[in-house]
Amino acid sequence: MSAGSDLETSQARHLRHRWHHHRRHGEAVFCFACALKKNGVPVEENDLREWKGASKREVIRCFVERQFGSAQHTLDELINRTFTDFSQLLEEQYRRSGIVPIQRAETTFRWLLDHNIRIATTTGFDREINDLILQTVGWQQIFTNNVCSTDVALGRPAPFMIFHAMEAAKVTDVSEVINIGDTPLDLQAGANAAVRGVMGVLTGAHKEERLRRERHTQILRSVADLPSVLQTDFGLQVGPTGSEH
């Protein structure tokens, strides 16, 4: 990945020093804050948390325009440079430190596939970071489709990534779709798509109280709880492996 600046700065060294703490508390948010500050846009990490799940480029544009105003013609260059710095910094950290999947997530994915339930991902990351994550955890072959915010006109809270995933899975009825995520924007997108299930999970940066302020059908401790919820709350009747009723 090309970058217009040298990330081996004191800022990047400071990142490595604090990385152990931030791996559990939002590495993407931390890399965002570093990239923005490096390009003259001071921001607190807490200000960025409400934007988790959004298109990363849209987030950068919002904070750059808040700092410098939206009328300047030179902002696109600054936005592109900041996005490149963010992407390179996050990629470096993922490659260096690895990615730890949520416990029992893959078991849940396999259960869904075994019962003929198609699954897809949506993300605010661009294609390169998305593919790196899936490759690192070995999930390239699990999903029907992996939709990035760059695949649609607007990212979350717009419902378009969900609709794009439905299109890839050849699903035409939103009453057959469940959207699950760990951010308020995930829940907003699910509500805007009017899908049958809009589920929040508590394995992200947001606390239960924050997620419950959004429209939702369930709040789960983890995606690992999904199989039981599908059976108890949605009436999924599970027969032998590979069938459902």
What is the average per-residue confidence, as pLDDT, rounded to a whole number?
A: 86
Helix-strand topology string: HHHHHHEHEHEHEHEH
CATH architecture type of the largest domain: 3-Layer(aba) Sandwich
> What is the CA-atom radius of gyration, in angstroms?
19 Å
Unreliable runs: 1-25
How much helix is in the residues? 40-55%
Give the amount of beta strand, in percent: 5-15%
Shape: globular
Calculate the terminal CA-CA distance, rounded to whole Å. 47 Å
The largest beta-sheet arranges its strands as: 3-4-5
Written overview of the protein:
- With about 240 residues, this protein is mainly α.
- It folds into 2 domains: about 90 residues, DNA polymerase, domain 1; about 130 residues, Rossmann fold (3-Layer(aba) Sandwich), CATH 3.40.50.1000.
- The chain contains 11 helices and 5 strands; from the N terminus they run ααααααβαβαβαβαβα.
- A 3-stranded parallel beta sheet has the order 3-4-5. Strands 1-2 form a two-stranded parallel sheet.
- Helix 4 crosses helix 5.
- The radius of gyration is 19 Å and the shape is globular.
- The protein starts with 9 loop residues before the first helix and ends in a 13-residue tail after the last helix.
